[in-house]
Each structure stands twice: as structure tokens, then as C-alpha cells.
Amino acid sequence: MRDKQRPELRATTVLGVLRNGKAALGSDGQMTLGNTVIKHSTRKIRRIQHANLVTGFAGATADAVTLLDRFDEKLQSFSGQLERAAVELARDWRTDKYLRRLEAMLAVVSSEKALIISGTGDVIEPEDGIVAIGSGSMYALSAARALLKHTDLEARDIVRESLELAADICIYTNNHIVVEEV
């Protein structure tokens, strides 16, 4: 629970799409504190596991970086098994006294899988191969589903277009977009 005296750091928009054996994950760069934009170009996606995975986060940056480090450790412990590492991270995140206080969500994509990992113990693999987290996630998700269904765009282009649309709607999302592909 957040302290009522501290302004809330708003999340972001992170979107991942699987298509034609490729995966793309992107995010905007906006960080807000209360009702003020404090940074336009925060980088919220990272490559890990020898660049075979791309991860993104929404929520508190320091918390997310801690979780990303733990996730990378889990991947190494389980020989790169994405699902096993995700489940173990979610379990630790939910049960560990220190980790359960962390306020973030993770999205992870490989060329074959897209997952959302949360602090409530959830590891979600969406049926449509689209992961979306953060304040503008439902706008980006809607756009990505429509583009996936009605166009032949590649995963990278779907992510970029969907994030651009989310930036036009969500006040916590901007158009400083970074997209990585695997």
C-alpha cells in the first residue's frame, strides 16, 4: 500500500506481440510523478539471456530492475527454461517477505512465448500471443488485436503502431517509443 503522502509514480505502457516466428516488445518512455511528467525517455525494456528474450516492466523502476535481475538468475538456474523461471520468480515474488513489497509487473517475450508475470503469483500466457501491461495497456492491446487480425504487419510494426495509438489516448503514455525484436 502506498503512503498517502507520496505522489504515485504512474506505470507506463508495455506491449509485446508474437507473429510469424518473431516477437517484438516495446514501450513508451514517459514517467510521471503525481500529475507531472518528470521524464520523457525512460527505457523500460531490456534484453536478457544472451539477447534471446526481451523483458519490459511497468511500475516502480527500482522494483522492476530488482525483479529483472532475479528473473535472469532464475533463467540461469533453470538452463534458460522460460516458463519454469517465470513460475519460480512469481512464487518467490509472492512469498518472499522482501520481494512481495515490490510494485511492478513484467512482460517477457521470446520468439515462441509471451508471458506476463505479476507479484500476485500469476504467470499468464495469453492465447493470442499479445502481452500488455501498464496504464495504457488496454488501449495498446485493443489496437494490437485489431492489427494482428486485420493486417499483415510484422510484430515490430504492430507494436509500434499500437503504442502510438495508446499514446494518443492515455495521458500516462507518450510517443517516445522503443521496440526490440527477437
Automatic annotation (TrEMBL):
Q: What is its EC number?
A: 3.4.25.2
Q: Enumerate the subcellular locations listed in this protein's record, separating them with semicolons.
A: Cytoplasm
Q: Which reaction does it catalyse?
A: ATP-dependent cleavage of peptide bonds with broad specificity
Q: How is its activity regulated?
A: Allosterically activated by HslU binding.
Q: Where is the active site?
A: T12
Asked if the record carries the keyword Lipid biosynthesis, the reply is: no
For this chain, the family text in UniProt reads: Belongs to the peptidase T1B family. HslV subfamily.
Q: What is this protein for, i.e. what is its function?
A: Protease subunit of a proteasome-like degradation complex believed to be a general protein degrading machinery.
Entry-linked HAMAP family: HslV (MF_00248)
Description of how the protein assembles with itself and partners: A double ring-shaped homohexamer of HslV is capped on each side by a ring-shaped HslU homohexamer. The assembly of the HslU/HslV complex is dependent on binding of ATP.
Q: What is this protein called?
A: ATP-dependent protease subunit HslV
Q: What is the lineage of its organism?
A: Bacteria, Pseudomonadati, Chlorobiota, Chlorobiia, Chlorobiales
